[in-house]
Write a structure and sequence with these properties.
The protein has about 190 residues and is mostly beta strands. Helix content is about 0%, strand content about 65%. It has no helices and 13 strands. The chain has strands at about 5-15, 20-25, 35-45, 45-60, 60-70, 75-80, 85-95, 110-120, 125-130, 140-150, 150-160, 170-175, 180-190. A 13-stranded antiparallel sheet has the order 1-2-3-4-5-6-7-8-9-10-11-12-13, with no helix packed on it. The termini are far apart.
Length: about 190
């Protein structure tokens, strides 16, 4: 500890549904500056999510690189805003990610690709290109806009198209979580065979 710096080593915090263990250096500034690395864990019922990350910056723009270990195959490289309203802006990379590890079934197989993601707690979006190991149509370009509030994922716009432009699908709807997952979607498609 000095007048302007607090160094924390091997700190552990367990909030029941989440836990963090890591090292940090906090520096006096407005907003507060920090750098550090941590292992993290989230627990949701019987599911467990775990990973590691590194952060450097201040609370207005905290540059973050994070990867998951459980489920394997997800990474985030971008920035978080932790003052005023929470916001994120960065790239999510999927490397042989298995959606079944989140309870989404085996229809897609493993998924590889990248999404540019941006938003906050109640509104967010992503665009990018993903490749499914189980779908023979090749990489799909996609765009998503939605939000989350009151245990409902609101999908305002979901668009997917193949590289040749022969297949195109659009949808909107919601996934309600309050009484077990309930999915309501409507959409349109062309070129589906």
């Amino acid at each position: 500890i000095s007048r302007r710096t607090l160094i924390v080593r091997d700190a552990q915090v367990d909030g029941g549904a989440w836990a963090v263990r890591g090292n940090a250096e906090l520096r006096s500034a407005d907003p507060l500056m920090l750098s550090g690395d941590a292992d993290w864990e989230l627990r949701a019922g019987e599911r467990r999510y775990a990973g590691a990350g590194r952060a450097d910056g201040d609370l207005d723009r905290l540059n973050v690189q994070a990867t998951t270990r459980e489920p394997r195959g997800l990474a985030f490289d971008g920035a978080l805003r932790l003052v005023d309203e929470f916001a994120f802006d960065g790239r999510v990379t999927l490397d042989a990610f298995d959606p079944a590890s989140l309870g989404a079934g085996t229809f897609f197989g493993t998924v590889t690709g990248a999404l540019d993601a941006k938003g906050g707690v109640d509104a967010f979006g992503a665009t990018g290109r993903l490749q499914s190991s189980a779908l023979p149509i090749g990489p799909l370009a996609g765009a998503f806009e939605g939000g989350y509030a009151a245990q409902v994922f609101d999908v305002r716009r979901l668009e997917v198209a193949d590289a040749k432009g022969e297949l195109r699908a659009t949808a909107s709807g919601a996934v309600e979580l309050a009484a077990g997952p309930r999915i309501r979607f409507a959409g349109d498609w062309t070129g589906l065979r």
